[in-house]
Amino acid sequence: NRRIVLAARPRGEPVPEDFRLEEVPRPEPAEGQILLRNLYLSLDPYMRGRMSEGPSYVEPVALGAVMGGATVARVALSRHPDFKPGDLVTGFGEWQDYALSDGTNLTRLGPDFAHPSYALSVLGMPGFTAWHGLLTIGEPKAGETLVVASASGPVGAVVGQIAKLKSCRVVGIAGGADKCRFVTDELGFDACIDRRDPAFAEALRRAVPDGIDIYYENVGGPVFDAVLPLLNVHARIPVCGLIAHYNDTAPPPGPDRLPRLAYTLLVKRIRMQGFIISDHYGPEFAAFLDAMKAWVAEGQVKLREDIVDGLENAPNAFIGLLRGENFGKLVIRIAP
Ligand code: NDP
């Protein structure tokens, strides 16, 4: 059983030496337990926060402990009355080949789950994050303009496609021409601006002639600096993520932006609200899953996956995620 543990706490950007691949004996299920063969592991930006010490909304991973993450797994052995070998399940697991479970907090993936890894993206946590933040905080109305960054990733892609279904004008922001082409041509956004373009702020301004009514915040940093002057009166800002800052070790250079932000919120009567998706599971997740399964089946919501083979490649893939090297939902395929 191979597993990846946290070897050191990163200073700034994580490096390969912050992780360690270990080999331990495969665990044996006791009565009432199942042995899971992990097939897919989701890599997500929030994992950077768990690598650091200090207060946050999730516990840090202890040094030497196995890195955690959502998985799709197949039941390999069962000593549990409700599971049989071959069943496909999803749940919160670890960066490892095999795991034991007593069945609690596992969700079975039925035959309607034609594409099991989607349980980690469009039909799972990132898709639900997009749904909740956009519909509950963003409150999109027909004809409004929405802007979202990391637009080719699982959260941004789903935000933009739901906003299109709600008849908004949708402008994506992504890193590079290939990602932007995908966002407009495949996902159907009205426009997409390359955040790496030196003239980015001006290009964004031209792409939103009527201003911005909803800015779905995934990144922060220079993208937010460009968005702020373009916000309309009564704009809404669901604050979902700030990936441009996850590796920060010091405040960003430049002037203190807080007074200008507060003044803009005041005079334009803007609502800016953060949320953490783990607070919202329950009936809302069931409603999301029903709607999203139908949209995916009808081709109204599409998702690109960036599948990397081999558990041993998870650390480098994760380091790349924080640099924008992934193109689509980053998933590690641990076993075929
Ligand atoms: P993605 O798969 O889209 O991956 C992250 C992307 O962020 C990169 O591909 C890159 O896209 C972009 N990025 C990386 N560094 C920077 C930077 N310095 N400045 C601007 N963009 C950058 O991630 P997800 O869709 O899974 O997550 C999107 C956001 O949502 C994250 O901030 C995440 O933390 C947050 N989130 C929050 C949740 C909550 O409960 N509040 C739950 C789930 C996710 P590109 O190269 O195209 O710019």
Automatic annotation (TrEMBL):
SMART domains: PKS_ER. Residues 14-332 form the Enoyl reductase (ER) domain. Pfam families: ADH_N_2, ADH_zinc_N. It comes from the Bacteria. SUPFAM superfamilies: GroES-like, NAD(P)-binding Rossmann-fold domains. Keywords: Oxidoreductase. One of its GO terms (molecular function) is oxidoreductase activity, acting on the CH-CH group of donors, NAD or NADP as acceptor. Gene3D superfamilies: Medium-chain alcohol dehydrogenases, catalytic domain, NAD(P)-binding Rossmann-like Domain. This is Enoyl reductase (ER) domain-containing protein. It comes from Methylobacterium pseudosasicola.
